[in-house]
Design brief:
Helix 1 packs across helix 2, helix 1 packs across helix 4 and helix 5 runs antiparallel to helix 7. 74% of the residues lie in helices and 0% in strands. The N and C termini lie far apart (56 Å). The chain has 187 residues and is mainly α. The longest helix has 25 residues. It has 2 domains: 49 residues, Orthogonal Bundle (Arc Repressor Mutant, subunit A); 124 residues, Tetracycline Repressor, domain 2 (Orthogonal Bundle), CATH 1.10.357.
Length: 187
């Protein structure tokens, strides 16, 4: 096994864990597969993470941070407050058209747990809360009459589009959600 020193090993473990969980789910991603795919020893994994649950949470936290940064970067390219709201869906469309699109990692992993207090579910809830808060920020910047309600509607449109794109294989779900957002916000 190839053990790379320092945080590089930890980053490799997290990257591989995130990719495998996103592709196969938590339950189907065993430690043997992680060891083999990451090219590190089991001992190396346990040097950084006490158990698989801790590893999964750390990988999902990184995904949350990176995904939200990506979305903000994509949206902020647009000029004007209304265009930024609509850009949420343009960003989604580009993601849906990518070869590695497998839906929302947080919805997917959340569906693997039955307990609403499970750390994975709590992390998924925190991710959706961040997404709501970003939508709220965009609605306030645009001056929508009821930004809380509009942000809640946008969150439903976003997650609905993601789910329809995955389940139905319909990458136009983002376009349809964008059209609904345009009507909802009179953009």
């Amino acid at each position: 096994m190839n053990d790379i020193p320092g945080n590089e090993t930890r980053d490799i473990i997290l990257d591989v864990t995130e990719k495998l969980i996103y592709r196969h789910g938590i339950a189907a991603t065993g430690m043997d597969l992680l060891v083999k795919t990451a090219g590190v020893s089991r001992k190396s994994i346990y040097r950084y993470f006490a158990n698989k649950d801790e590893l999964v949470i750390a990988a999902l936290q990184r995904r949350d941070e990176r995904w939200m940064q990506w979305l903000r970067r994509e949206v902020e390219r647009s000029e004007g407050s209304g265009e930024r709201i609509l850009a949420l869906f343009s960003a989604l469309k580009a993601w849906f058209d990518s070869t590695d699109f497998r839906g929302c990692a947080f919805i997917n992993t959340s569906g693997e747990t039955g307990d609403p207090h499970d750390p994975v579910r709590l992390l998924a809830k925190a991710h959706k809360q961040k997404l709501f808060e970003y939508a709220l920020e965009l609605c306030k910047a645009h001056g929508t009459p009821d930004p809380q309600q509009q942000a809640a509607h946008l969150l439903i449109l976003i997650d609905g589009a993601i789910t329809v794109a995955l389940v139905m294989g319909d990458s136009t779900a983002a376009d349809k959600a964008q059209s609904m957002a345009r009507t909802l916000l009179a953009l």
